[in-house]
Amino acid sequence: MLWVANGQALWQNAPQGGNGKSCATCHGDAAKSMRGKAAGFPRFSAPAGKVITLSQQINQCRTSAQQAPALKPETADLLALEAYIGMQSRGHPMSPASDEQTRQAAARGQKLFTTRIGQLNLSCAQCHDDNAGKRLAGAPIPQGHANAYPIYRLEWQGVGSLQRRLRNCMSGVRAEVPPYGAPDLVDLEAYLAQRAQGMPMETPGVRP
């Protein structure tokens, strides 16, 4: 909740290097204007011309509406804003966007989810479908429902994004790890949102 509190402060205060506008200048009370919004990401953005995540939407607002520098991936301020915005959708059902571009991204993500990668030649599905509920090094294997991100993980001793978790898994199977914001990671997020459709948002969640 420290990240949520920091996100609230960032929401209300204009960023340095901008035009003096805060998130609240345009969107007002986040408890009202952001209710359910995080549950609909990733989704297609016409200004960006592609499917984007919530963190990318935040940066799109910063660079266009606020005329401020984009926040770097996985930085404290970006995670705080994601956690605060996500908190406004807590308990709201995951509602994946249904536009054609997002559906195509989810289809690509599903293919990636079932494709073996890395030196260990494993796919996401082999753990999160075939062996869900079993244990890996003492930790239970979940079904891969990403309805609680950004999330506080005990192994991180801090809050991290879904893309951080995906990149950790890719590194774990000794695969090439794409950079934050890469199309493959966005596609995987779109598919995972589809898998979790109807589940309640838990942001910010806590996991081992």
Report on this structure:
A three-stranded mixed β-sheet has the order 6-5-7. A hairpin with a 2-residue loop joins strand 3 and strand 4 (139-140). It has helices at 2-12, 23-27, 30-33, 54-64, 76-87, 100-113, 124-128, 162-172, 183-195; strands at residues 43-45, 50-52, 135-136, 139-140, 151-153, 158-160, 205-207. The chain folds into two domains: 2-87, Cytochrome c-like domain (Cytochrome Bc1 Complex, Chain D, domain 2); 100-207, Cytochrome Bc1 Complex, Chain D, domain 2 (Orthogonal Bundle), CATH 1.10.760. Helix 1 (2-12) crosses helix 5. The chain starts with a helix and ends with a strand. Helices cover 41% and strands 9% of the residues. The mean pLDDT is 96. The radius of gyration is 17 Å and the shape is globular. By secondary structure, the chain is mainly alpha-helical.
